[in-house]
Amino acid sequence: MRSKYDAQLLYLHEQLGRMGQLCEEAIANATKAIFSEEPEFARTAAKCEEAIDQKEREIEALCMQLLLQQQPVATDLRRISTAIKMISDMERIGDQAADIAFLTLENDIARTAGDVHLKDMARATIQMVNESVAAYVAADGEKASAVIQMDDKVDALFLEIKSALVDLVRADGDAAENVVNLLMIAKYFERIGDHAVNVAEWVLFSITGRHVKKAPASETD
Predict the structure, then answer these.
(1) Residues 6+ apart with CB under 8 A from 176
(2) Is the separation of the CB atoms in 41 and 30 below 8 Å?
(3) Which among 214, 183, 195 has a CA at the least distance from the CA of 92?
(4) 3-state secondary structure of 218
(5) pTM over cut 0.85
(6) How far, in Å, are 3, 14, 75 from residue 70 at the CA level?
């Protein structure tokens, strides 16, 4: 009986890893859509978002099956409960990547995007998503804590991009529409980072039994 249960837990970890990969693919394709004139990247990001939604439903059903049939306790119960929390944040990551992709279809923003640090922000958020899921699979508290610390870098990049976009508007009023769209995109990346932090915080809960939220920057300065 335990061997079947262990196999189900392993499958759960594998499916969470796959959902994390889909999130990475969605963000990567949305980023490519920003800097190219190829709508296929945006369409691929949208397809990834649909696959993420489907994966969320599959994992949720698996978690409910494990809870009802196996009645786990202690660490196993926390890890399954954590998976349910994680997939909600990962589904939102997919939504926000699709929102970024949609903005690229409606606007010619590639030229303006090259003037700010969006690529750096995208790379950082992809890494956060990857590391947060890996922390869960490995039950690695240090890796989860590192993801939480990375959020400060993403927040700093957002402020840099915001400042650079303000300067662009001052220099060229005709760029205002693109600047607004790029600011929205940067905000979506920041939110993706926030969701990765949520995942990492739930990973720490699954290991320690304590759920501690990252304090806002104003409280930690």
Answers:
(1) 169
(2) yes
(3) 195
(4) helix
(5) yes
(6) 12, 19, 13
Q: Which one-letter DSSP state was computed for residue 144? A: H
The one-letter code for the residue type at 200 is A
Helix (H, G, I), strand (E, B) or coil at 39: helix
Q: 155, 217 in Cβ contact below 8 A? A: yes
Residue with token string 């993420």:
52
Give 10-residue mean pLDDT values along the chain (221 residues). Answer: 82 93 95 88 96 97 91 86 95 96 80 78 94 92 96 95 88 80 94 96 91 62 36
Phi, psi torsion values for 8, nearest 5 degrees: -65, -40
60, with CB counted inside 10 A (0-12, 13-18, 19+), is middle
